[in-house]
Design a protein that fits this description.
Number of strands: 36
Number of helices: 17
Distance between the termini: 105 Å
CATH superfamily of one domain: Immunoglobulins
Oligomer: single chain
Structural class: alpha+beta
Low-confidence stretches: none
Radius of gyration: 32 Å
Helix content: 10-25%
CATH topology of one domain: Immunoglobulin-like
Shape: elongated
CATH architecture of one domain: Sandwich
CATH class of one domain: Mainly Beta
């Protein structure tokens, strides 16, 4: 061993590296100026020989093995810095020429890191994670991760035999970010971060910022470049502000079809003569689903789809609500480019896409965010603050700026990289209340002694303000199940800044009413009318969602009373009709549009074969016609959140379980009169009407083509000057049984 070389070396630092406990290997490894030249050092386990090849030189310089575990060094007597590579011969006699990972500059600026630490680096995903790039003329991948309490972090993958000693990352200042550029790593390579905690225990973690992930049950992250997709949805994006208008008195139609991509439709599994799977997956690719779904959604006259979470998740049965890959479209259905194709195609067909998003909690899977760097990094350390006891998941520490930044930049990522038209935030109530789902002693009060989660409130306000500033035409929707005020209120007026809130109260009240035998509905009549007392306090979406058709709750058709299928479906038709004419945007879960009878099962396709039966095909035809009615008549959506758009005619017909009301716009000629009868009785009825003139029945859920009995008003009705329901003009109409009828006014 060369004594002069030996004396130049920092052996304490070298021991840190060889024991893979170094968080700043770049201080030692690579080329460093010393007296009269440069000291070049490298650590390559399993290397038998290493030579230094300086650019422009034909003859490489042999490097001395200073430690038999693979530490090599040499002295180069040059005055100027130089570029170089290593020629490595391994103990299996394989030879490689490689660039030195520790010879490249960081891609982070001081401003990048300072803004991340302050929680305001909204494009942090552009640098964090695995980024294919060319540095100093060398192709490779730049890896970085936030792990402030780690003793050491390494990148491991097929490219380095999953050996955590090989590519130990460099800690950047005091920001807790680790980084390394690894030459010759390619798109498609698998990787993880090996995090050694302060106890010296190594943990394998998936990349929190990975853009793509391995197909479950495998959990590695995948290097991918998402910059090469060519979008062609310019017309949609340019006009989206009008398509999804939330402007006062110009509210746009929004009728949402909620679905789970993995069970909306599936392939039939095929097997060979040996019983082996032939087609390998029951799932359609994002591109295949796009074509099938767009045709169906357009045919059924929906305006939007809402997709249950497509972010990577380990368990199919979680439906995507326990996310491990927040930046990664699940590989169950294809690649990130495939999902971009899905979004692009839906837009070109005039269909908006809303994504479910889960900022409230995350699962405990060992490869995920939990105890990421050996400390409680993303979650609270105190389980009273950091865990949901009945979900078994962990709660984000929203007070930590880098955690807030991770989530805010993720919401922006889906809007700006994938062109999503809206984000529906799951379980917002669990974020707002510290005692959500907890008993006394299981939660910690805020600084004022209350149960409000002040950090989560601030996080939501921060997120919503930045999201709407950068993406004003993309929607923010809250699934919030309590009476928390101003969910959709203006941020400058104490609100949380969402565009819409799911109306869970209406859903619960209305379904309880509909489940009653018609004979007993008069006793719960207020459930029909109560929603209008609070409707204008928020911008509500009326929802009949997936949560109502699982876990023993029965499908919507299954909830309906009736001794026969025909009676059940008559109830379902009037229920959908009332929902569609009630103020507020609409959402219906897949399968309910044709009256699926079995509860939703994420492991199976919808029961499309039911459409071979007349009763189900007519139910689908009814849903299609009702949806068309909704989008064709502005009175049903334009003034959804203006009291001027709705007016009761009669909301006191308790004994008949009947309501009549008006939907309107600022134009009188758009006026519609709606009559809902929730009993199986035909009535001859006088109803008050808003104007003198002619009223034509334009829709009747009891029409025979929908499976009804055919009772209705085939001829236009002229109003008479007779005071009914407190109005000067009235009509005498036939009210069909268990049905909704809608009349259009003309002067």
């Amino acid at each position: 061993m060369d004594k002069n070389l030996y004396d130049l070396m920092d052996w304490a630092a070298i021991e840190e590296i060889t024991y893979s406990e170094c968080d700043r290997p770049k201080i030692t490894l690579g080329s460093h100026r010393v007296e009269d030249g440069f000291l070049v050092q490298t650590f390559i386990p399993h290397a038998k020989e290493v030579e230094l090849l300086i650019d422009g030189n034909k003859n490489p310089i042999p490097m001395q093995c200073m430690d038999e575990v693979g530490f090599f060094a040499c002295f180069v007597g040059r005055k100027q810095e130089f570029k170089y590579k290593y020629i490595v011969k391994y103990d299996n006699d394989v030879e490689q020429t490689v660039s030195d990972p520790y010879s490249f500059d960081s891609i982070y600026s001081e401003e990048d890191l300072s803004k991340f630490s302050a929680g305001i680096n909204y494009e942090i995903y552009e640098k964090m994670g695995a980024k294919p790039m060319t540095l100093s003329g060398v192709q490779g991948v730049n890896f970085s991760v936030w792990a402030p309490e780690a003793m050491r972090v390494s990148v491991v993958g097929d490219f380095n035999l999953w050996d955590g000693r090989r590519h130990q990352m460099n800690r950047l200042g005091d920001f807790g970010v680790f980084e390394i550029f690894i030459p010759d790593v390619c798109v498609g390579d698998l990787y993880k971060f090996e995090v050694k905690n302060k106890k010296g225990e190594p943990m394998l973690k998936s990349d929190p910022y990975a853009f793509y992930s391995e197909l479950r049950p495998n959990t590695a992250s995948v290097v991918v470049d998402i910059s090469d997709f060519e979008w062609s949805d310019d017309d949609w994006m340019k006009n989206r502000e009008d398509i999804q208008s939330t402007r006062v008195n110009e509210s746009a139609a929004m009728n949402i079809y909620e679905l789970h991509l993995g069970s909306w439709i599936r392939k039939e599994m095929q097997y060979d003569e040996n019983g082996e799977e032939v087609n390998g997956s029951v799932f359609y690719n994002y591109r295949e689903i796009a074509h099938k779904l767009a045709v169906y959604v357009k045919k059924m006259n929906y305006t939007h789809v809402e997709i249950m979470p497509i972010m990577e998740h380990p368990l199919d049965a979680s439906w995507g609500y326990q996310v491990t890959g927040y930046y990664s479209p699940t590989s169950r259905y294809g690649t990130p480019q495939d999902f971009m194709y899905f979004m692009n195609y839906m837009h070109k067909k005039g269909i908006g896409v809303i994504l479910d998003w889960v900022p409230a909690h995350f699962p405990r899977d060992l490869h995920g965010l939990g105890c990421f760097d050996g400390s409680h990094l993303y979650e609270h350390a105190d389980p009273r603050q950091g865990a949901h006891p009945h979900w078994g998941t962990l709660i984000y520490n929203y007070a930590r700026p880098q955690v807030s930044n991770f989530l805010i930049s993720n919401a922006l990522f889906w809007a700006e990289k994938y062109h999503v038209d809206g984000i529906r935030m799951d379980a917002v109530a669990s974020m707002l209340y510290l005692d959500y789902g907890k008993n006394n002693g299981e939660w910690v009060a805020n600084i004022y002694g209350g149960n409000e989660n002040l950090d989560a409130i601030e996080f939501l306000k921060h997120l919503n303000s930045i999201y709407k500033k950068r993406n004003p035409s993309s929607l923010l929707i809250a699934e919030e199940s309590t009476a928390w005020p101003k969910i959709s209120g203006d941020l400058n007026d104490g609100g949380l800044g969402f565009d819409y809130k799911w109306n869970m109260g209406w859903m619960n009240d209305f379904l309880e009413f509909m489940k009653l035998d018609p004979y007993f509905r008069s006793g719960d009549y207020n459930a029909l009318t109560f929603s209008l007392f609070y409707h204008y306090s928020e911008n509500f979406i009326l929802v009949l969602s997936h949560d109502e058709v699982v876990h023993g709750k029965a499908t919507l058709a299954g909830k309906m009373p009736g001794a026969t299928q025909e009676e059940k479906f008559a109830n379902l038709r009037v229920a959908y009709g009332y929902m569609m004419t009630h103020p507020g945007k609409k959402l219906l879960f897949m399968g309910q549009e044709f009256g699926q009878m079995n509860e939703w099962n994420e492991d199976k396709s919808l029961e499309w074969d039911l459409l071979d039966y007349d009763i189900h095909s007519k139910m689908q035809k009814y849903s299609k016609a009702l949806n068309k009615l909704y989008v064709d008549y502005p009175a049903l959506y334009k003034l959804d959140y203006d009291p001027a758009g709705f007016e009761w005619i009669n909301c006191t017909s308790k004994d008949e379980s009947m309501v009549t009301f008006i939907r309107k716009t600022e134009k009188e000629e758009d006026t519609l009169v709606v009559v809902c009868n929730f009993t199986p009785v035909v009535y001859e009825k006088e109803i008050g009407v808003p104007y003198k003139g002619t009223y034509t029945e334009i829709f009747n859920s009891d029409d025979k083509k929908f499976g009804g009995s055919g009772v209705g008003n085939k001829r236009a009705k002229k109003s008479v000057k007779k005071k009914v329901d407190g109005r000067d003009n009235s009509l005498k109409i036939k009210v069909p049984p268990m049905a909704i009828t809608i009349f259009k006014w003309a002067e």
